[in-house]
Amino acid sequence: MKKNPLEEQILQTAEELFLEKGFDATSTTDIAKKVGCNQALVHYYFRTKEKLFMQIFSKKQEMVFSCLKLSEETDFQTALNDFIDAYFELLMQNRKLPFFIINELIMRDDRRQYFRKKVIESLEYLKYYSAWNMMLQKEIAEGRIRPIELADLTLHVVSLLVFTFISLPLYSDFFKKDETEIRTYLNHRKEAIKELIFNGIKSNRI
Amino acid sequence: MKKNPLEEQILQTAEELFLEKGFDATSTTDIAKKVGCNQALVHYYFRTKEKLFMQIFSKKQEMVFSCLKLSEETDFQTALNDFIDAYFELLMQNRKLPFFIINELIMRDDRRQYFRKKVIESLEYLKYYSAWNMMLQKEIAEGRIRPIELADLTLHVVSLLVFTFISLPLYSDFFKKDETEIRTYLNHRKEAIKELIFNGIKSNRI
DNA sequence: GTCTATATAGTGATAGAC
DNA sequence: GTCTATCACTATATAGAC
């Protein structure tokens, strides 16, 4: 089913505004104004603001989980390194994604339930989890990584990655950085985070 | 100047609601309803919603910087350990503080400028920064800590601490945890974070 | 100081003309 | 499919009675 170009444009503009300002602070009038049409048209295509939002939210939410696949046939350290690279790349190209998701999940109970349901439905993730865990346990057993829960390690990594992008607007605003400097900063942060993680989990028995 | 008890109650209630739902999602009508008075009274005491909010925001913002003082006469590792303890304690007793501050700073340009100005005004922070940095450089020079920028280390620590509390609503909601379990979880996270940090920066030359 | 009433503006959503 | 007009609602803020 081919979409009307205007419908596409509304969807596109809504995405920009929702990502920029969140659900509450974005009105259908704002969207219409930016598109250059009238506000009724937004409701004609998507009926409610909520339905329009959820199309965007569920798409963005899937991006969050898109990096969990791990390259088989390799060791834990390489897999983790690749994961950090992939996730960082995703976030560099979608800088507002972390705050957008977190904000909506924290602010609204129904979004949180929706998100939770999606996670549980996707049994895939359990599969990935146990694959990761087996690799980690092997490294621990063989004395290359100090004993650590996968859940803890995951939280460490996610904290470091996500907060980098949540705090990015403060960084670029406080220090008046331009796009080139921001890119340099982000690449620097990626390496610093990797260094902390890999040194932090490395067993000192070797 | 003694405050009217109702004025105090409005301020208190506004604080709860702003911390819970943020500026946008809290109306002066909400506040009045929870206090048990009428909406006009909120405006009588504070004139505008913005002025009421800023009283709370600036107070909360100061809390963010309240843990920077470092205990003199000690080594870097101990000082960092104490800092993490102090900050974690502050956040455990003010769990909504991180998201509240971040949310307002990201959503509104004027709040960001206000925050920035406050940071710059407080030259105190520079003093603390160079004190921390001297101690760190000493540890690096003597081979106990691997070379690292203080800015990077600070960002690591803040990321790990702050994200723990930003994501806390998701944790307690997803896994249906009660208050006791949450406390256990938080204490566990604190130790896990310390472990990562201290192992991550420790020089392997010793 | 506390109330009711209201001015003004903005919201999401729909009806109906073209 | 796109528009104008409008409804019902909620918001902040103020005026004025008591």
How are the SSEs placed, and which strands pair?
The structure is a homodimer of 206-residue chains.
Chain A: H1 5-21, H2 28-35, H3 39-46, H4 49-65, H5 76-93, H6 97-107, H7 109-121, H8 124-141, H9 150-166, H10 168-174, H11 179-201
The structure holds a DNA duplex (18 and 18 nucleotides).
Oligomer designation? homodimer
CATH superfamily of the largest domain in chain A: Tetracycline Repressor, domain 2
Named CATH topology of the largest domain in chain A: Tetracycline Repressor, domain 2
State the low-pLDDT regions of chain A, or none: none
SSE run of chain A: HHHHHHHHHHH
The most extensive contact between chains is: A-B, 43 and 43 residues
Domain tally of chain A: 2
Portion of residues in helices of chain A? over 70%
CATH architecture of the largest domain in chain A: Orthogonal Bundle
Structural overview:
2 copies of one chain form a homodimer. Helices cover 76% and strands 0% of the residues of chain A. In chain A, helix 1 packs across helix 2, helix 5 runs parallel beside helix 9 and helix 5 packs antiparallel against helix 11. Chain A starts with a helix and ends in a 5-residue tail after the last helix. The model of chain A has no long low-confidence stretch (mean pLDDT 94). Chains A and B meet through helix 6, helix 7, helix 9, helix 10 and helix 11 of A and helix 6, helix 7, helix 9, helix 10 and helix 11 of B. The structure holds a DNA duplex (18 and 18 nucleotides).
